[in-house]
Amino acid sequence: MTWSRYGQLLSFTDCSGYVTRYDHDRFGQMTAVHREEGLSQYRAYDSRGQLIAVKDTQGHETRYEYNAAGDLTTVIAPDGSRNGTQYDAWGKAICTTQGGLTRSMEYDAAGRVIRLTSENGSHTTFRYDVLDLLIQETGFDGRTQRYHHDLTGKLIRSEDEGLVTHWHYDEADRLTHRTVNGETAERWQYDERGWLTDISHLSEGHRVTVHYGYDEKGRLTGERQTVHHPQTEALLWQHETRHAYNAQGLANRCIPDSLSAVEWLTYGSGWLSGMKLGDTPLVEYTRDRLHRETLRSFGRYELTIAYTPAGQLQSQHLNSLLSDRDYTWNDNGELIRISSPRQTRSYSYSTTGRLTGVHTTAANLDIRIPYATDPAGNRLPDPELHPDSTLSMWPDNRIARDAHYLYRYDHHGRLTEKTDLIPEGVIRTDDERTHRYHYDSQHRLVHYTRTQYAEPLVESRYLYDPLGRRVAKRVWRRERDLTGWMSLSRKPQVTWYGWDGDRLTTIQNDRTRIQTIYQPGSFTPLIRVETATGELAKTQRRSLADALQQSGGEDGGSVVFPPVLVQMLDRLESEILADRVSEESRRWLASCGLTVEQMQNQMDPVYTPARKIHLYHCDHRGLPLVLISTEGATEWCAEYDEWGNLLNEENPHQLQQLIRLPGQQYDEESGLYYNRHRYYDPLQGRYITQDPIGLKGGWNFYQYPLNPITDIDPLGLATCLYSITLSMLSCVSDTQNDDNSYDVLTIPVASGNNGNNMQCKNNPGCTHLQNRGPIPQGVWSWNVNGPGATNRKPNGIRLVPSANTETYNRDGFLTQSCLNAFGPSLGPRFCSEGCITGSSNDMQKLNELIFSEPDSTLTVTD
Question: In this protein, which residues make up the domain named Teneurin-like YD-shell (predicted)?
Answer without folding.
Answer: 101-221, 338-475
